[in-house]
Write a structure and sequence with these properties.
The complex is a heterodimer. Chain A has no helices and eleven strands. Chain A is mainly beta. Chain B is globular and about 40 Å long. Classes of the chains: A mainly beta, B mainly beta. The interface of A and B includes residues 44, 109, 111 and 112 of A.
Chain lengths: ~120, ~110
Amino acid sequence: EVQLVESGGGLVQPGGSLRLSCAASGFTFSSYWMHWVRQAPGKGLVWVSRINSDGSSTSYADSVKGRFTISRDNAKNTLYLQMNSLRAEDTAVYYCARTTVIPWSDAFDIWGQGTMVTVSS
Amino acid sequence: SYVLTQPPSVSVAPGQTARITCGGNNIGSKSVHWYQQKPGQAPVLVVYDDSDRPSGIPERFSGSNSGNTATLTISRVEAGDEADYYCQVWDSSSDPWVFGGGTKLTVL
């Protein structure tokens, strides 16, 4: 079964740090681009970051650029999001999701169940 | 950055047809994808590349895209279709994966 499972969420103070993980199974992880998408309570979906198949290229939403770092370990089939200098507005459910490279598609065809991050004092 | 506009809510009676729109500047030139999200669950891809369905998605879900509007059509609506629906495109802007604000589908 194709699956993505996030972990690492929790309560953190403003200015603090947190690292999220996303464990992939059931598919060839190293063949896919991976992403983080977040959803603030009661709000819509917002793309956060993406990383290419071998980890050599990344991009970020303007709202997190310079504070968040996406990375992956293809040997461990795991995606990461290092979040620093956290703000209250970063409070959200964070989903990992994949997009297909061959054939190319920018649709998110598989999503994890999400992990909640709460930034509050 | 590119903006996608969806109506906040759409209501439809069971068995009828629901149409959810997604507006964007010349969106007809882009590939539009649609997601269904039920409360407390992760989004699920229901239509990709304007009108294709992933395996396991009922034929009742279809899509179209032309000009400045893309449309998700759900035929013979069932109570289980009640959910939030999001459109999404890729754009060569600073935040390239763009979502619409979402539409809450209510089955009366």
